[in-house]
Design a protein that fits this description.
single chain; 486 residues; 2 domains; mainly alpha
Length: 486
């Protein structure tokens, strides 16, 4: 049994460590996301083999040079993030000026731990799964980190506001001391705080485990990095088609996609777009993080929805907002690093980009828009407990065809045929903003008509307007021909 005095002493110590725990947690999370997102391209770059492959540079020396660059940039970022922590530590009663070198050493350890941990993960995956799996892991890690940063920046504050009073991170949560942020928070408290025995134990754990990670990553498993560099530029022969490719083809051969993709050109564009969305690193890093806010905002809106109050704004806004999802997806898929290969579209016996645009647009609807509306329907049903609220999603669903074809009609550009530098054009952002304002107007009109009892007539009128606009834009796109190359 733990005595009351021991528990009180532990609580006092934990209260001191808890002040630095938040800074340590934010630093580790921020550095982890940065290193995971950037280290894959830094450590395993295909282009550098042409420059360094014939030079007498040992892989271990190359690895240390790259890690020094990562460490330098990460330390600058960590120091900038911890400016407030330095100020708080200096002004704390049990801190003082000695907190500056103590926290600087703690940041150095955290940075070594993050960089070494990510490098160690890549080396273990290279040893256990091989080069092809490693490339997929690096791309997947970068995509997940980018999405997590977007979602965390929007969703976590809402969760803290709504459920923060229910969090109880006190001494009863003993498992927190097993997490890396507690080690480095204990390091700060050991050198510049109360200096209790528990803080020294945590500091020793942080130093020891950081040393183990650094030794494994930069010494023990450095040979795996050399193997990865040697096989990076090689392309093994006889690669069998992946299971994902067969599933995609089976998906397109089954109803209703088989009926929707009767045109062979549209079907080929659908398969090409799907392949890029699944396998191409540049497309995934550009499309998925850009669409993540579109998918997380409905959750935030519904978290603020109060069931039983007759509030129809949340479901109506979500339906109209998700209707814009295919517009953004189709716009982002116009760009690719392999845009010069799009000349094959002009060489094909097709008069213009219409069939290619139809296939890319349907791929976006199938892969993103339809699942998003299904999830939105489940969220609305779960949070409102009123099945009739699902009808408020219909205005956004009706507007889908016009929203999806709008970027094709505006640019007359087939998928993956424009350089990525043009993706930052200001005109695209202005056009998207105008469409977003239109979505808000539809949401407001849907909410007003729902409250006043003429929602069905609103749907009928919207259907006629959307049908006319879609028919006009589709006809204009179908009559478009390839521009002259002169």
């Amino acid at each position: 049994m733990v005595s009351r005095a021991e528990r009180t002493a532990f609580n006092e110590w934990w209260w001191t460590v808890d002040r630095w725990l938040l800074f340590s947690f934010m630093t580790l999370m921020f550095l982890g996301m940065f290193v995971a997102a950037s280290s894959g391209e830094v450590l395993f770059n295909r282009d550098e083999a042409d420059i360094l492959g014939h030079r007498p540079v040992r892989p271990q020396a190359l690895l240390r040079a790259k890690v020094r660059v990562l460490m330098g940039v990460s330390l600058w970022l960590a120091a900038a993030l911890n400016l407030a922590a330095f100020a708080v530590g200096v002004s704390a009663p049990d801190g003082g000026w000695r907190f500056l070198p103590a926290h600087a050493a703690s940041l150095l350890l955290e940075t070594l731990f993050c960089v070494g941990g990510v490098v160690l993960t890549y080396q273990l995956c290279l040893r256990w799964f091989g080069r092809q799996r490693l490339e997929g892991l690096m791309t997947g890690a970068q995509v997940l980190v980018a999405i997590a940063a977007v979602i965390g920046g929007q969703l976590v504050p809402q969760l803290m506001i709504r459920y923060g009073h229910q969090l109880n991170l006190t001494a009863d949560r003993w498992w927190i001391t097993l997490l890396p942020p507690a080690w480095f928070a204990g390091f700060d408290d050991a050198l510049a705080g109360r200096g209790g025995r528990s803080s020294w134990i945590l500091a020793a754990m942080g130093v020891a485990l950081t040393g183990v990670v650094v030794w494994l990553a930069f010494e023990r498993l450095a040979g795996d990095y050399e193997t990865g560099l040697q096989t990076l530029s090689e392309r093994p022969a006889g690669i069998r088609p992946r299971m994902g490719r067969r599933w995609i083809r089976l998906f397109t051969e089954a109803p209703p996609l088989r009926w929707w993709l009767r045109n062979p050109v549209s079907k080929a564009a659908f398969l090409l777009t799907t392949a890029y969305l699944i396998r191409d690193r540049d497309v995934k890093l550009r499309v998925y993080p850009a669409l993540a806010p579109m998918l997380i905002l409905p959750v935030i809106i519904l978290m603020q929805h109060r069931p039983g109050e007759g509030d129809s704004f949340g479901p109506s806004f979500i339906g109209s907002y998700l209707g814009v999802l295919p517009l953004m997806g189709v716009e982002l898929l116009e760009f690719s690093q392999q845009w010069q290969a799009a000349d094959v579209f002009r060489a094909a016996p097709i008069p213009g980009p219409a069939a290619l645009c139809h296939g890319a647009r349907r791929a976006v609807i199938c892969l993103f828009t339809a699942p998003a509306f299904v999830l939105a329907a489940l969220l609305v049903l779960g949070m409102t407990q009123d099945p009739s609220q699902l009808l408020l999603l219909l205005p956004g669903i009706l507007a889908l065809p016009a929203y999806a074809i709008f970027p094709n009609w505006r640019s007359l550009t087939p998928p993956l045929s424009r350089p990525t530098e043009e993706a930052k054009a200001a005109g695209r952002a202005l056009g998207t903003m105008v469409v977003m304002i239109g979505a808000l107007l539809i949401a407001g009109l849907a909410m007003w008509s729902w409250k006043n009892g003429w929602f069905v007539w609103m749907l009928v009128g919207e259907g006629f307007v959307v049908l006319a606009a879609y028919a006009a834009m589709r006809d204009s796109l179908s009559r478009a021909h390839w521009p002259n190359s002169d």
